[in-house]
Amino acid sequence: MHRRLALALLGLASCTSAPPAPAPARIARADQVSGTTALLIAVSPVNERVVWASGTQGTWLRTVDGGTHWQSGRVAGADSLQFRDVHGVDERTAYLLSIGNGNQSRIYKTTDAGVSWRLLFTNSDPKAFLDCMDFWSPTQGIVVSDAVDGKVLVLETRDGEGWTRLAPSSLPSAPDGEGSYAASGTCLVARPGGHAWIAAADSTRSRVLRTTDFGATWRSESLPLTSRAGSGVQSVAFRDASNGLAFGGGTTAKPQDVNVAITADGGRTWTPGGRVPLASGVWGGVPVPGTRATYVAVGPSGAAWTPDGGRSWTPLDSVNYWSVGFASRNAGWAVGQKGRITKFAGF
């Protein structure tokens, strides 16, 4: 994320939230007991029963029964790290990404359900700042960093172990100050067949970088989202290779901002969508599997959903969330401050 905003984002997380507003009648909302008071920043459902989550204080969480019981722990030697992204592979295997300048940006992996975590990558570039990750398969994935010296920085793995930088020449150049917001683990999304999209912004514009060949080549497309210092594109979500949304928000979001953009051609072109009714804008948004065009978006001022691909939005509640993920229309989780985990169903 833009590193100068890291503390500001954490400050927002401590704000007092209003009591949850009632969800639409057919949508069920249930608070779950996480077993931690850490700020939770990312969530990764593997299926309706297995879900991983992560957050501050080196925290990770796992459930294997749909959230009836959550196991929480801290990565040894990483208590000071903020795990702002997590990718669950199965009930025993997951990756964690921490953010920060220099060697605070790291990638860990467990293959024994969190009993132990192996450090796979430690950033050695003092100008780099890891933001988000996603995977095409259990072992092939990518990670994006804030831009360094006018170059977008993307790492890849092909074996789930070693990480190398993509050739800068394969990526568009980057303006000074451009980065991706590490506020939900959704600033990068990968889809089957080698498709991936990265949300990036500076103080004047937001854009999406897209690839269709597993990161070998990339193109840049502008977004019609409001962008200013502290606010811009935060999240990108695709329900298939063609149809997706980009979401805007941040610490300086305003009620009149354009905070949704829609594409139906894989991210080549974008048009403004209906505004998500969240004062903070959107920090994380995802499609709901098993639906035609339903997405859920969250931020520190609540959650909202759309049944029509981003054209209209309805509030779900008004508590503090940072991220959201769905395994199916009846199994979705939103996470946020003070260890909050809320399960949604019935879309």
Overview of the molecule:
With 347 residues, the protein is mainly β. It has one helix at residues 6-13, and strands at residues 28-32, 40-45, 51-55, 59-63, 71-74, 82-88, 94-99, 106-110, 118-122, 130-135, 141-148, 151-157, 164-165, 188-191, 195-201, 206-211, 219-222, 231-238, 244-250, 260-263, 271-272, 284-287, 295-299, 302-306, 314-317, 321-328, 331-336, 341-345. The chain has one domain (3-13, 34-345): Methylamine Dehydrogenase, Chain H, CATH 2.130.10.10. The protein has a four-stranded antiparallel beta sheet with strand order 1-28-27-26, with no helix packed on it. A four-stranded antiparallel beta sheet has the order 2-3-4-5, with no helix packed on it. A four-stranded antiparallel beta sheet has the order 6-7-8-9, with no helix packed on it. Strand 11 (141-148) and strand 12 (151-157) form a beta hairpin.
Q: Briefly, what is this?
A:
The protein is 2% helix and 43% strand.
What are the main properties of this structure?
Methylamine Dehydrogenase, Chain H, single chain, 1 helix, mainly beta, four-stranded antiparallel β-sheet, 347 residues
